Q: What sequence folds into this?
């Protein structure tokens, strides 16, 4: 690779007889105009990976992007909760508490026998669980 440290005018003079090289050099010198992702205005791009015209545009865009992601995540969580609720309702079973005889809802595969922790502990405390096992 040839390294030449001269002005653009000198390079043009040097390669004026070779149009292919001169066109390649001109292409390197052209400044690519691109559109900012945040403010949608045109600006001269300094690097190939540059997407924003300024640091403030980049930080504004990233802040908005994090808000969008949060909204999307919230919507996904709500949709999952609704789907779980529908699934639970389709697989729900109404049972009677063994201690207080109140009705409660449980999953069809659940082994729950009591409507609350209080009823379960009271059932154990009063020794009713022993009499149940003796009858079986």
A:
């Amino acid at each position: 690779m040839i390294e030449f440290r001269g002005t653009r005018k000198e390079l043009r003079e040097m390669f004026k007889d070779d149009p292919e090289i001169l066109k390649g050099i001109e292409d390197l010198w052209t400044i690519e105009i691109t559109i900012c992702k945040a403010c949608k205005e045109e600006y001269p791009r300094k690097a190939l990976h540059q997407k924003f015209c300024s640091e403030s545009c980049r930080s504004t865009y990233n802040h908005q992007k994090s808000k969008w992601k949060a909204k999307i995540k919230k919507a996904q969580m709500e949709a999952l909760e609704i789907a779980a609720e529908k699934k639970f309702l389709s697989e729900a079973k109404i049972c009677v508490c063994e201690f207080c005889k109140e009705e409660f809802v449980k999953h069809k595969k659940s082994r729950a026998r009591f409507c609350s922790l209080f009823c379960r502990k009271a059932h154990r405390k009063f020794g009713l669980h022993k009499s149940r096992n003796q009858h079986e």
Observations:
- Helices lie at 8-14, 19-29, 55-90, 117-125, 128-135.
- The first helix runs from residue 8 to 14.
- The CA atoms of residues 99 and 126 lie 10 Å apart.
- Residues 1-56 form one domain.
